[in-house]
Every structure is written in structure tokens, then in C-alpha cells.
Amino acid sequence: MSNKVAIISSNGGLFDAYKVFNIATAAASADQEVTIFFTFEGLNLIHKQAHQNLPLPAGKEQFAEGFKSANVPAIPELVEMAVEMGVKIIACQMTMDVMNLKKEDFIEGIDVGGAMTFIEFAKDANITLTF
Amino acid sequence: MAIAANEVLDCKGLACPMPIVKTKKAMEKLESGKVIEIQATDKGSTADIQSWAKSTGHQYLGTTSEGEVLRHYLRKANPDEVKEDTKFPHTVDNVMLEKVLEQENTVILDVREPAEYMFSHIPGSLSIPLGELENNIEKLDREKDIYVVCRTGNRSDRASQILADKGFTKIKNVVPGMSEWMGPVEKFQGGDK
């Protein structure tokens, strides 16, 4: 059985970031090989500046307090942990071109690739998730 | 009574997925066969630790709770533990062991780690972990029929061979052992879970 987890991340809010990185780090903890393909707004989650201060969904601002009191790790911390545990991050080249972003705009340790790069990894993944 | 662990990992106050991430890291440093106690306050950790153990092949022993604090016990599996490599020639199965439980002159020797024994063992069985067997030989009566039990029959196989080397003749290795034991057990009743 394959031990690959393939994730597409295409939304750029704080909630989205937790969904993606909690699943990714949990999977990596269980010795799964994880690749996340960041596309469109998902690129926010790995953007050097943007990922430090991701927005809560409109009308849900009151949850900022809840994140603090539940002692949930900050997103940059989770991202760093994910990379350290071998989670592979692919930024979508096409979106980067559209948004005029360069590899240097993103956190260290990422790859840039197209849809096919993700498909090649995902074709025999046991778990595929989209956020 | 406290449950013995070789390592203690403090995950108190941490939210998902941190207890799992920290457990993974701590487990990498742990020696095979050793037991780790993970302290956590995240209520989801009980289910998560069990699932993690299942997917990584490590052994989940149990959880106790005291107020807000959960203590999870895991034993690091040996990579070759799953494959059955029984060499000691004299074995009995679990059904056979159940039949002789009440007989006189029978000793059930449990060679698992103390934490495994604490959570569940056969009533009246004697606990001597495999690693301490050679220093505790005098606790065993050579005249009695000794049934050696562990989780899957591997550690008890090694224990049986150690005893045979020491001149014991009435040794039987129980295969598979506690992992599929359907007979009576004494369980740990501590905590308020």
C-alpha cells in the first residue's frame, strides 16, 4: 500500500492554513510521504509575509481569542515543522506568473512546479485531499 | 500504583497536532522495547495516539487520567517483532494455557514490560520483564510447570531459551500470548477515566 498523502491547498485564510498544516504534520508524524500543491489563494499560506498574518473569515474574528487560549501553534511554526518533517511544498508556477510572484517571495525550502508535478506524485497516493 | 515508563514526554497544554508530532520525535530517540509515557491535556489525544500507534506499528498500552491530565503509554516496537520466528521447541497455544490455569504446580511467567503487565495480565501471573529475567532466576521454582507468556510469543520465546539454558526443563512458550488472549485478565483500575 502506498504511504503517500497528496494535498491541494487553494484557499488563503487562517482556517484554511490550519486544515492544511495540521493534516500534513499529522500525516508526516505517521511516516507518510506528504506533498502539498499550493495554488491560487493557497499561495498565501507559504508567502513570506502573508503567512505571518493570515485573515480570519469575515465575521469570525472572535475566534482569534480561541486560537490563543487553546494554545494552537502559530502558522509559521507549523509550516517550519512541516518542512522539517519532510513535507514537500510545491508552489504553482502558473498562479505565480498570474500574480507576478517569484520563488524568493516564498518561504525557504519550496519547489515550484506545474499541475503535472502534482499529478505525478498524486497518481499512486493513498489519500488525496483538497482544501 | 504508578506505571513504570522509561521516558516521560510532557505535552500538557498543547493542541493537535503537537502531541502527535512530539510523540513521533520522542519515539525516534527511544530504544526498541522501551515504554514512553506521554502526558497531555488535549482530549483528542487519546484517540489520536491510538491511531498513530496503529499506523506506525508501535504498541499502545493504555491511558490513565488524573484531573485534566491524560497519561498515554506506548511501547516502541522492534522492527522484526511482527514476524514470528519461534525457535523454542516446546510451545502451547492460548487455549491450552486456559485449560491449565487452575492446575497446581503451574506458574505463568509474564515477561512483558511492567507497564504492559499493569494494564492487563492473567490473574496470578508472575511479572519478570525479559531484560531482568537472568537476574531473577531464583524467583522461579524448577519443579513447577512454567508457562512463559508475552504479547506475541517472541519475547517469551527468548525467555524460554534463557530458562532452558539455565537448566529448567518444564518450560512451555505460549504462542501467541496476550495479543489474542481470551481468558480471564486483571486490568489496571487506576485513574478516573
Automatic annotation (TrEMBL), chain A:
Superkingdom classification of source: Bacteria
InterPro entries: DsrE2-like, DsrEFH-like
UniProt-listed Pfam families: DrsE_2 (PF13686)
PANTHER family: CONSERVED WITHIN P. AEROPHILUM (PTHR34655), PEROXIREDOXIN FAMILY PROTEIN (PTHR34655:SF2)
Designated name of the protein: DsrE/DsrF/DrsH-like family protein
Taxonomic source organism: Fictibacillus fluitans
Lineage: Bacteria, Bacillati, Bacillota, Bacilli, Bacillales
TrEMBL record, chain B:
Gene3D superfamilies: Rhodanese-like domain, TusA-like domain
InterPro entries: Rhodanese-like_dom (IPR001763), Rhodanese-like_dom_sf (IPR036873), TusA-like (IPR001455), TusA-like_sf (IPR036868)
CDD domains: RHOD, SirA_YedF_YeeD
Cited SMART domains: RHOD (SM00450)
Domain (Rhodanese) ranges: 102-187
Similarity annotation: Belongs to the sulfur carrier protein TusA family.
Name of the protein this chain belongs to: Sulfurtransferase TusA family protein
Source organism per UniProt: Fictibacillus fluitans
